Task: structure prediction
Amino acid sequence: MKLLTLDTSTTACSVALSIDGELTAEYLAGQGRTLSSRLLDVVDLLLRGAGLTLADLDGFGIALGPGSFTGLRVGVATVKGLSLATGKPVAGFSSLAMLAMNLPWAAHPVCPMFDARKKEVYAGLYECRQLPRSLISDTVLPPGKFLERVSGPTIFVGEGAVRYRDQIYDRLGEHALFAPSSAHLPRASAGAILADDVFARGETVPLPLLLPVYIRLSEAELARKTPLDS
Result:
């Protein structure tokens, strides 16, 4: 299967091309949102390097969230456009599960964390083998509240883990393990593993139902809420 996978869920954006489960090429930008504005150029670069066209692809993968509201919208909209242009299906997956898969076959549970601003994190807990298994569902909470749900040796990974490292260590002590710096950026190549599994299970989503998973309400949605809604 020829699969193109995109991730724009954080300030790190990436695109990966895989064929039959093997990574063929990947483009990763770790800072800023410059990649979000030129995703199609990067897609063209990877395809030309592999001697392929969009028509040669069998499907697309996309990180649905949680993460940056703007980034997720850009990624989902881009993949929808590519799918409409080619008629090829799309597999969506959790951006936190994707980040956890930077540490496959980890000896301990993996806690991926994104900085959600407002003194909160997007976080989950996964057992990572060949595929991740959710132990604590993706959520958004102040780091201290989330850490109340974690016990035992745990590997923390992601920008949120970096920002709240001291708080994590204060809560868990020697049970707090931290991934190497090279693992903190979410990578579309890890997402391709999840997308391949979605395709294998036949669980692709029709385009009208393919939406970002924000978890938290946007500022505009909060502003629209009335006292009767709360």
